[in-house]
């Protein structure tokens, strides 16, 4: 007699009865549902594809605003298509043009460009001869200035004509040599170059102001222009450079000896040169009285240069 079915497999039946009911469904191994009803990744791809399709329909060019340059464009050309960039560029060009025009107009008020070109019309031969004359002026005999149709000839054609090339180059060289000298004494700092430049410029401007005011107060009729005064006062930097170099090599003896020599030469040079510039109007009715004032002015300018040479080099040499 067959046993009932519930007794045929007692172990299986018991396992069913003994199993505990599952309280929740294990979803740790299943992918999360997508909000678009698709497997993960497909929904995001569909969203990006829709955005790109919409932009392409509206005519959007991804290279127009900072993207990759299109075919045939150089790098950075995409920024030129930006209307704001074009507007800023046009505004900047307009401001630059206005600033250049403003500078040119104001420079022409005080310094003529053509006049400045005259003072820099030099060549190598002129520079070498002028430096030799500044170092040894006693061998020079003809101090007159050449003219061409009531206008002085360019410095390259007349060694007696003043120039601004040698004073400007000598000024820059003086600043550099001063830094070298201070470096030998372990006193150099980057700020020293600025201090030296500012100090020399202030004293030079003060010197030019005093001399121009003296010419105005004395009411002297001369051919001396203010740029001529700048040139003549700037020639002293040549002697200052040599004095600093001599002091650096031969100590105080070389410095004082070289400074004394160039003090004599610059004073002699200026007396001979300014005598032609200032004492060139003997036809005036008050020439006798004006000549005395002119002589005083010439001597004052000539004797002031050695004092300035010592003042601008002495504190550098003895900065120990």
TrEMBL record:
Region (Disordered): 1-43
Pfam families the record matches: YIF1 (PF03878)
Keywords assigned by UniProt, alphabetized: Endoplasmic reticulum, Golgi apparatus, Membrane, Protein transport, Transmembrane, Transmembrane helix, Transport
Domain of life: Eukaryota
Coiled-coil segments on the chain, per record: none
Topology versus the membrane: Multi-pass membrane protein
Presence of keyword Zinc-finger: no
Biological process annotations from GO: endoplasmic reticulum to Golgi vesicle-mediated transport; protein transport
GO terms under cellular component: COPII-coated ER to Golgi transport vesicle; endoplasmic reticulum membrane; endoplasmic reticulum-Golgi intermediate compartment; Golgi membrane
Subcellular location: Endoplasmic reticulum membrane; Golgi apparatus membrane
TM helices/strands, residue ranges: 164-185, 197-217, 229-249, 255-274, 295-318
Family: Belongs to the YIF1 family.
Role, per record: Has a role in transport between endoplasmic reticulum and Golgi.
Entry protein name: Protein YIF1
Record gene name: LOC111127827
